[in-house]
Amino acid sequence: MNKATSRRFVSKLQRTLLAVLLVIIAFGSIPVGKASAWSYDKLSRRPGAVIIPTVYIVDLPAGNNILSLTLTNSSVSTGPVVYRSPASTGDQIVVAAYGVEMWNGSSWVPFAYSPTGVLSLPIKANQSAVVFPNLYIQPPVMPAGYYRVTWSFVWGTATGAPLGATNVVSNLATDHVCGSTNRWCRAYAGFFQLR
Fold first, then answer.
1. d(CA 38, CA 19)
2. Torsion angle of the four alpha carbons 6, 9, 10, 16, in this order, in degrees rounded to the nearest 10
């Protein structure tokens, strides 16, 4: 695949991912089962499997010797591990977006996104999976409230055909680990609370 074709394909997948994210935002959070630590909701077609690491809420340097509340999974060696879609045996591309949602009293609403924006990685025909970068979100302000981390993944073929999409949300208290020394933080089943 040449660079121009690759850019058109990534652009098409990014538009698809953004459309999926807009549907989620417009209609509120999608109900998901409680079968595992993270809930995987098949939004369309045949997505691959995803392994999501634990999210840590910690204080990390933000410049000028200031510590800032940070959501990361850098205490492990990798970010999410994303397996190929079973819908294709050829080269694939996976597009991912990470974000934080805040409870507004009646629904989950977008609060912050990964500073790197939408990410895309190829999965060659001879590869079973790819590893995405660690989550790293350091919002300038996080008011008291309830939050959760969400992940969205879209798979496509090398020619641009969509293969599947998955939205992943927290399910257990162990999905988020509070380690902040400057803020009160407590993890619950599916979200965490800041005061």
1. 22
2. 180
* SS3 label, residue 190: coil
What amino acid occupies position 77? S
**pTM as predicted:** 0.77
Maximum average pLDDT range among 31-40, 48-57, 70-79: 48-57
Can you tell me whether residue 10 is helix, strand or coil? helix
Q: Could you read off the pLDDT of 82-122 as tens digits, one per residue?
A: 999 999 999 999 999 999 999 999 999 999 988 777 899 99
Identify the residue whose tokens are 């204080």: 59
Question: Which tens digit of pLDDT belongs to each residue from 5-22?
Answer: 545 545 555 555 444 443
Distance CA 127, CA 91 (A): 9
Tell me how far apart the terminal alpha carbons of the chain are, to the nearest angstrom: 50
What's the CA gap between 122 and 179, in Å, rounded? 34
- For CA atoms 67, 53, 20, 23, give the dihedral sign: negative
Location of structure tokens 């005061």 = 195
Rounded distance between C-alpha atoms, residue 195 and residue 76, angstroms? 26
